[in-house]
Each structure stands twice: as C-alpha cells, then as structure tokens.
Amino acid sequence: MNQNEAKWTFFSNHGHVYLLIAANEDIIVREIASRVGITERSVLGIIQDLYDAGYIMKEKVGRSNRYKIVPKKTLRHSLESNVQLQDLIDLITKTKNS
Fold this sequence. Notes:
By secondary structure, this protein is of the alpha+beta class.
C-alpha cells in the first residue's frame, strides 16, 4: 500500500468476522484471525460480542465451537437498521462470485 492510499476499510473487524462465519460455518478462529489480520484473542472477543448481541449462535461440536449466523438480524446503526444482514451477505457473495 503506498503512502497516499487510505489505511481504513468500510467494514469493521466485527463485520469481517461475521461475513467469514456467514461464508463458512466450519471456519476456525485461527483462520478468521489470519484472514482479518487480527489476533485469535480479538476474534474470540468479537465472536462473544456477536453472540451476546444475538447475531450468531454457538454450537459445541466435540471440543470445538461451530458458529452460525442469525440471518434475519439487521444492521445496528439507525442509518442502516432497515438492512437485513442476509441481504448484505447475498450482495457481497453475488458480487464476489460474479
């Protein structure tokens, strides 16, 4: 990235984690951390935030957790509170696969 390019993104780390879980319910914390560029501990904190807010569900599978999104939830900010996360996922997935 050159000096003149912005270092910010439109999605927060919470958004990135949510989108990765939406794309692959079998994804492990280590892979999420690697792909988002944050620590595993940060990912676990974000997962807990998303779980506490009702955006994901946890299922114990053996010694591991599997995470699943709650697709009918909407974005949190009042400016986008009419947007269901599943619609956003569908849009991003469609764009990525086109």
